[in-house]
Amino acid sequence: xxxxxxxxWLAAAGVFVLLLGSLTYVQFFRADALDENPWNSRQLYDxxxxxxxxxxxxxxxxxxxxxxxxxxxxxxxxxxxxxxxxLTGYFSMVYGATGLEQAMNAELSGDSDAQFYDRIAQxxxxxxxxxxxxxxxxxxxxxxxxTDLLEGHQGSIVAMDPKTGEVLAMASSPSYDANAxxxxxxxxxxxxxxxxxxxxxxPLSNRxxxxxxxxxxxxxxxxxxxxxxxxxxxxxxxxxxxxxxxPLPGTNVxxxxxxQGNCQSQSTATIEWALAxxxxxxxxxxxxxxxxxxxxxxxxxxxxGQDMGIPLSVTxxxxxQDMNQSQLALASIGQYDxxxxxxxxxxxxxxxANDGVQMKPNLVRTVxxxxxxxxxxxxxxxxxxxxxxxxxxxxxxxxxxxxxNGIASGAAVSGTKVAGKTGTAEIGxxxxxxxxxxxxxxxxxxxxxxxxxxEDVDAATGAQLTSPGARQIFExxxxx
Length: 480
Hints:
- The protein is α+β, with helices and mostly antiparallel strands and 480 residues long.
- Strands 3-2-1-6-16-17 form a six-stranded mixed β-sheet. It has a five-stranded antiparallel β-sheet with strand order 8-7-21-20-19.
- The chain has a domain at 217-363 and 384-478: DD-peptidase/beta-lactamase superfamily (Beta-lactamase, 3-Layer(aba) Sandwich).
- Mean pLDDT is 90; it is low at 38-44.
- A hairpin with a 3-residue loop joins strand 13 (308-309) and strand 14.
- Helix 8 (140-150) packs antiparallel against helix 18, helix 11 crosses helix 13 and helix 13 crosses helix 15 (325-331).
- The longest helix is centred in the N-terminal third of the chain and has 28 residues, at 2-29.
- It has helices at residues 2-29, 31-36, 41-48, 81-88, 99-103, 105-109, 116-125, 140-150, 179-182, 186-198, 221-231, 271-277, 280-290, 292-301, 325-331, 342-353, 389-405, 459-478; strands at residues 55-57, 60-67, 74-78, 91-92, 96-97, 133-136, 155-160, 167-173, 239-241, 245-247, 254-256, 268-270, 308-309, 313-314, 357-359, 364-368, 374-377, 382-385, 419-426, 433-441, 448-457.
- One of its GO terms (biological process) is cell wall organization.
């Protein structure tokens, strides 16, 4: 009898061990696979029907979860989506998450390590789980202005505080309505995504930080100017030859000078004058004299080639390697295989504005849990020293002259010193260009640095859009 009881207990214990082992295996070793299983409808409903935290600008929700009357508890909604979609991205049950919805998913869903105690409190209180809110550094009025300036064009505008790295505006055009991709109607979501994804204007790309990067054109001459001064071979009084056509070594072609300014009026030029008129040939000579390594080193010091999260992932800007002298001459004026983001160009100007110190750019000011505990609060962080204070201040003076007496005069603000540099990047044989402006104001106490690019415009249109657009941004910040 005792033996029978013993066997029964052993069998029961064995079953218990098997059940416990199976449960442990499922919960700890198979949890991720089961969560991702497309047949796991409960996980689908939990994930896309939860109360995600809001994304806010100036205290106003631009992405939030709203109670729904379907099988899900909540529906993700986006306010002013065309204005913010490149940043918020979308949270889609068909296509997953992009933008800040992806980059800040752990916080927005309430699953971050910092929200552990909030989750425990919700379990014991029986309350519903809520994600954290994410407050952005954006200035809503400035974001609206940047969006309006880009209307009807392809391009991007970035504005940031050069002293702190806070991104004040980041617009990409064309944009899209994220609500169409966050719907719980899978059929309509698939149709909307198909249309957006096949659009040759690439509305799903955030042109400010990703997508097909741009040739920076003559804005890259700021890098050349810094490299020249750092080398010790050039100073404010240096004079260079300014031919209207520069023979490129090892080729049968010449590099033409810029034809829209006054480059043809002088056969020699100082760096200041060449920068103000955006003359190509003096800067190509500087680059070939200093060599690829020096120009590349300077570009790296300003952020080229660096991985970055703001927290959105930023595609690194690139400066080509293993070039011959002809290719280096073209790269020195922002052509050949130089590729950049508008954010990188804004960071370059910010470093000059901030006495040579480049601050780490950031989009997120504060993250607060549902119980209003602060999980994260922005603090300014230095990314690198790009150049010395003396060099930065000299280039700053040259950029002020570019607005006062050069081809960037359209950015001038009455009663305020403005620093700027224009750029024109050839994009093919069509005669159209990518038109640039970058700069900052006030030059003696910078509050905002900008980068503006318009795609596929002629020279006259580019001049009407870039520098005057920058002036409006400067005025908006200075008049606050």
